[in-house]
Amino acid sequence: MQRRQFLKSMTALTAAAAVPAPAVWSTATAQSRQETLLVVSESGPNNLDIHGVGTNVPGYEVSWNCYDRLISHEMKTLPNGTPYYDKSKFKPELAEDMNVGEMSATFRLRKDAVFQDGTPVTAKDVKWSFDRAVTVGGFPTFQMSAGSLTKPEQFVVVDDHTFRVDFVKKDRLTTPDLAVIVPCVLNSELVKSKSTGQDPWGLEFTKLNTIGSGAYKVTNWTAGSQVVLERNDNWKGGPLPKIKRVIWRMVPDAGNRRALLERGDADVSYDLPNKDFSELKSDGKLTIISTPYSNGIQYIGMNVAHPPFDNVKVRYAVACAVPYQKIMDVVLYGLGKPMFGASAEAPTEVAWPQPHKFTTDLAKAKKYLTDAGYSNGLPDPIPISFDLGFAGVNEPICVLVQESLAQIGIQTTINKVPGANWRTELIKKTMPLFTNVFSGWLDYPEYFFYWCYHSGKSIFNTMDYQSPQMDTFIDGARSSAATGDNDTYQKDVRDFVDLAFTDMPRIPLYQPFVNVAMQKHISGYQYWFHRRLDYRTFAKA
Amino acid sequence: MLTMTIKRLATAIPSLLGVVIVTFLLTRALPGDPAAYFAGPAATPQAIQEIRAKLGLDKPLIEQFARYVVDLAHGNLGTSLTTGQPVATELRNRLPASAELTLLGLMVSILIAVPLGILAATKPNSIIDHACRLISTLGVSLPVFFTGLILIYVFYYLTGWAPAPLGRLDVFYTDPPHVTGFFLIDSLIAGQPDTFMAALKQLILPALTLGIFSLAPIARMTRASMLAVLSSDFIRTARASGLSPYTVIITYAFRNAMLPVITTLGMVFSFLLGANVLVEKVFAWPGIGSYAVEALLASDFAPVQGFVLTMAVLYIMLNLFIDVLFGLIDPRVRLEA
Predict the structure, then answer these.
(1) Phi, psi values for residue B49, rounded to 5°
(2) Which of A55, A250, A252, A275 could bond A44 through an S-S bridge, CB–CB 3.0 to 4.6 Å?
(3) Cα-only R_g, chain B
């Protein structure tokens, strides 16, 4: 190529690029908005199958909407008018009815239910799916075991449309555990045809394809960018959803999510900073629904296995120094339910979460610290750790706590742990002081305590709290709940709550809210234990 | 020129090998345990151990590296844990998005910076020269995410002129059939002018953001290089011969001043391709920058390695391309090589 020629051709190319494109407009590719729900959130799924390895929480939302379970929950209405799942009332989904006996539960399946490829749903598919959930390992197997569902032998095909679950032991959580996201029913023949020797459960196939009998199916998934779900018009698990298509876009920037909502371009969003939610709420242009996390608490934890927090007086001192109300006002903008400052005579309730009796009282905190032998404050600064993945709430909490503790002579440094490391840090159980949130899918006090206070191996007992007495109460509550011994159950629950507040290995701060913002013409939001959206009930006016 | 190209390619091999080894070691040196991260919220130590074995992370480092190199030789970059997709596919899908945005950003930048630089050089210390200095200083000192957010606030939120910052296309459009991966080109090939316009509209704000950011080096380099050329003897001769100012400045001076500008362009382009992470985040752009950062935050090794490797290959190709371009623009360079 000659230099002159090249330069000339470059000039020509630039000129060609500068010619404006013809402004011809057509609406052929632009599809109707009316039947489409546009959801924006920070992050999206990494796997469309909840049985997969390391499926993240957005992936649960896909599973919930694309697969059916045998049973689901009825709805009840909260005082603020929000429909809220009723943990004690079940409704059939793939099952027509459920018959819970002494040591087994029998389900009669709907005869008309078909998978999205037209194959009828049979008891064989249910068994295969449950076998898969208890065998693949990781989170699904673990969640199944929370309801004492551990072995494939427990799942029995009686005939094509009758299915039985045998109990290994009596457990109150077995039935609720069949209504969580994990025991979903997959098209077993289809998956089997795609499975390989290395991948006997076809996880690679279901990672990318939703093959259930559920109300929606994923028709386009671009990881990290968008998920498109189309309605399955042949769904038999409930009334036909009104929304035909759901477009779920990932918008990493919170400010943009808010702008999209305010401009009316997005229909629903649910992970905005508290400040934005409180401003949107007072603005009144959008519907904002705030619901407390079921069975969830944000707390300050202290490692009780090592000094100085092995001394209960030091823990009391911290509990008296935490600026509770300031956290509610400045960090949460009021979007949380206080878990502190119950009146001194308030009786302990058979419920969880419930508030403890501490309030911010620096004089008292100082006294506790003096009693503990630290009249001049603690000798060394203590790192206070938090998960950087949720820095929006965690960081200001830690700063406020740091400021307050400094006033009673406890110097702290702030230790930001990147999200990827947080779990590793939890497992080590060596962080002396930290803030975190825990919430359980199954809304029972003994479930929460089993995870957070039992001396077993749970990583959420990050305080390394070991108390034989506590274990006795928790185990007692679990077994009395299974046998229906209500008096013992109530006593055990009261006892473990009292003990938790007496020993104070962790200081509950508040029950966080799930905040959902949507356009005024969108209706049908329901709160579910998994806190994600159920598209099936949404409607657009 | 072919021999030169081959020679240059051969020198790239050691750098590539180095990149492979260093990225592998660096990702392993990252704090955080991917197995714990992906084992889920309620994992027991056994579950984490199971996942670690499944991911092959329980093997000695040297064995992991051998497996990585063998996979690499087969064109397999591994699978991302955060998105669940093969890294090679993801990079292939995302690279055009980043490249389209970066190219357009660079074009915006050139269209503003080069004329500005030339004008500033022809009239040193004039108003235009000061304006050039001010604009480029402002552009480079405003952080990109800030410029991006301001542009969104003004042109989308307040006035509604720009479309929603929702990635490459409005949600109610479908992607044009994949040919090059550049939506502007693909939509024209498919004969969908409305998709072209929609894609262009989505591109304007992020491209402008990138353009403003990269103004400074290009404008300053154009100015400096033009000043040097304008003071040389042949320009004086040209002026003395009575050639029109346009011919003197554009035909003679600018062409001779182009070499350093092209070098800068190459550097700015490769720099932008990696550095537009923030723009991608702000505009929900499905590019490779945001992909790599998300993977990094999750200790997800495979995408990070794949990203660094891709960038290394791109840098090498780009430098090669620029060297070849030099030869075409200025025959002297070719002779020396």
Answers:
(1) -60, -40
(2) A250
(3) 24
SS3 for A530? coil
Token code pair at residue B266: 């190459």
8-state DSSP, B157? I
pLDDT digits (tens, 9 = 90+) for A107-145: 999 999 999 999 999 999 999 999 999 988 777 887 888
Residue A296, phi then psi, degrees to nearest 5: -130, 145
Q: Of A493, A501, A498, nearest to A340 (Cα)?
A: A501
The DSSP output letter for B253 is: I
Contact between B129 and B256 under an 8 Å Cβ cutoff? The reply is no
The C-alpha atoms of residue B304 and residue B80 are separated, in whole angstroms, by: 9
Residue B241: CB atoms within 10 A of its CB come to 9
Reference A251, options A86, A44, A417; nearest CA is A44
Which pLDDT score, from 0 to 100, does residue A22 have? 38
State both tokens at B238: 């040209």
Query: What distance in Å separates the CA atoms of residue B322 and residue A92, rounded to the nearest whole number?
Result: 67
Judge contact between A173 and A111, C-beta under 8 A.
no
Contact B286 A251 (CB under 8 A): no
Please give the radius of gyration of chain A, using alpha carbons only, rounded to the nearest integer.
27
Q: Which residues of B touch A389 (CB under 8 A)?
A: 297
Say whether A263 and B156 touch across the interface (CB within 8 A): yes
Contacts of B115 (CB under 8 A, 6+ apart): none
Q: Can you give the length of chain B in residues?
A: 337
By the 8 A CB rule, do B107 and B210 touch?
no
Distance, in angstroms, between B15 CA and closest chain A CA?
30
Average pLDDT, chain B: 84
Chain B residues 112-141 with a CB less than 8 Å from chain A: none
Q: Report which residue type is found at B278.
A: L
- Could you tell me the pTM of the whole model? 0.82
